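Archive maintenance. Older records in this collection stored only the sequence; we are now back-filling the structure field for every entry so that each record is complete. The fields below show one back-filled record exactly as it appears after the update. Entries are processed alphabetically, and Glutamate--cysteine ligase is next in the queue.

ARCHIVE ENTRY
Title: Glutamate--cysteine ligase
Organism field: Anaeromyces robustus
Length field: 811
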Amino acid sequence: MGLLSLGTPLPWNKASKYADHVRKHGIIQFLNVWKKEKMHRRTNLLWGDEIEYTVVHMNKDHKARISIHAAEILHELQEDEKNKKNYNASWKPEYAKYMIEGTPNQPYGSTIYDLLTVENNMKNRRKLIREKLNKDEIVTSLTTFPTLGAKDFIYPPYLPTADSGSSQSLYIPEEAITSHARFPTLTANIRKRRGSKVAINLPIYKDKNTPSPFLEPLSYLSKKLFTKILNSNSNGQLSLPEIVSDAKKDHVYLDCMCFGMGCSCLQITFQACCIEEARKLYDLLAPMSPIMLAITAGAPAYKGYLTDTDCRWDVISGSVDDRNEEERGLKPLKNSRFVINKSRYDSIDSYLSPGPQYFRDHQFKNHYLNCCFSSISHYKSKYNDIPLVYDKDIYKKLIDNRVDDLLAKHIAHLFIRDPIVIFNELLNQNDNKSMDHFENIQSTNWQTLRFKPPPSNSDIGWRVEFRSMEVQLTDFANAAFSIFIVLLTRTILAFNLNFYIPISKVDENMKTAQIRDAARTKKFWFRKNIIPTDSVFEGKHSDDNNNNQNENGDRNRNRNEGENEDEDEDAFELMTINEIFNGNPKNNFMGLIPLIRSYLSSIRLDTNTFSSLERYLYFISKRASGELVTDAVWIRNFIRSHKDYKQDSIVNSTIVYDLCKILEGVNQGRESALMRIYKTVGDGIFGSKSIFSSDHINIINSTPFCNYYNKTDRLPCLQSHCFTRFSKDHCEFLQYKRFVHLNLNRQRRKYSYHRCFINDLNNVYPGTLDECYVSHSNFSKNITLSELNHIKNQDISISYPLPWLKQDQIY
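Back-filled structure field:
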């Protein structure tokens, strides 16, 4: 949730007077850390995940309500964390009292085997919560509780206090908000700074019996508040849009921060080796943020209604929108400093670039392939095509302290916001030892990604937080997406990939991602050429070969220009999520999943580890292809097919009860429940009874890999799936499929030998083959096609099994 300081929070009329003080000292604190840490290098990857859980009360009348008993459970969990040895979970309060935030107690490490502990850690966290529950309670990982804000949605029952309290909501009682001073103060100060309550309107899902136009009825409390208006009406029947000006026809009206901050998400934070790497990953993950939002969508219902959206993003964005009318452009600027085009919670507004130091005088070690890659940045100024609003005085101060232009604008842009929660005891700090003022503003800029400087006087490095994903219904799916993001960052760095597109197109994608069933039905802007010419797959990565690099690069560029004379190397186009993840051979586009598999191949994992990771990649590949649906689609279909659903868009508590009952069964491993949720998680949820069972064959189409010897100038080309030698006389093709088998009866989830099939041969040289083939063959120096006919399309691994070499470090 961000910075959780303790002290006496100031109300907005007092806090607003110290806004400049916090901004001034926040910049000083950032500069102190930046000067100390900007050249610091760390060697190992550290990362962690964050999941927000919801505690639900299940009563005998088949009603499911969120339980604020979670606050007591959280206290007990924190006591266990403090007192028990080898405790592998950490707990924090979240905005709503029915929520519990769980993370690993220690970050995951830099080995590939750390990835294999993620799912068990998540399962253990859920188990630890479950041990503290009452008999009539369960723990879920729903993005949003479908009846949050509807009648009788909370246990114990409380009524909203629309004329008092921090939110003054028509639907959410004050008791639903966590009592930590930060949260009610944040709620009240956002409302007061804005000058009104927040207002979110979600389009209603029009089902067969949904009224048209849909006019949301008044709640019981609303009828009490607006008695005079209702009595003055001839028939006493008025709808919400007719009384509340912010409410719209054909929409569901939400009026409180809890509707957004009471949602749950899945976030990943990873430490980079240096500031340059952190900035690079920040940029290249930005185009992925809406894609990951769409494929993890999990929020089809709000306040007891099915809505025509699938994601939480616009809800949470609107729920913390503290901009006043001048800042929203509704009135001319008079008392405010800026017109601001987005809420505090939204997509990023600019790329950082890796920074000038990245390509000025450094050659960075590629830890993945034990080589050095050229210090080339893919960033171009044209990608930042949105006018950036930033504080020019802060920008000048940063520039005067030798912070580069893009990073200075990024920080100055964050600091156009006011600090919302200020604690009286923390007004005056030692700027050399504290980052509280900086974090006060940084932590209330809730964007799709967060670039995080190291804390003061800490061993922690520069970090990037990936924030767009929705939490998944199962620990298996949460682990899969967490592992995918980490492997994607390693693949980006190993192959020097390029995902840059204009930032305006990322914003368009964010809107598209929230459309109903966007993962299967919509297209997203994505870069066509993600494998640059300076990738290790098409350029030299050995110091011994540097002399030949420019020559080979020129030849490669000439070849590409001849084939695509009119094609812009920075071109982007609309792609389906299936194409982005699984590739499109017709357009010569290699998807993210094959790239990650190629990366895993290049680091030579043992077969057991590869098979375990493939379980997650297979699931994501199927989700991307549409064979598996998102959680939002599954929940919507569950609601619409329920016996108590009247095809009128209304979601009652008995439907939610049955939904939660299935989800609890899933996370306790009940086979009947697992079968009910199969459509969104697939085989992977069954563990050993998954795609790796003995009656399945896992076929992986990936780029062929070899040992990258310094002695050879033949390099694998990902785009054409072949080995290419930069010579007009020789074009060498080595293409194979890896058929991986698992025999549970004999080996218990151990793969058999890797199998290789060779085809499309034309003057293949032994040097391009793996060492196992060369050592067991009597091939001459130059082998003709006719000499290889005897092994074409044959499984040569039967005679010469490919040895798998372990390499622990993925960083």
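Update note: Residues 215-249 form one domain. Residues 56 and 66 are 4 Å apart (CA to CA).
Entry marked complete.
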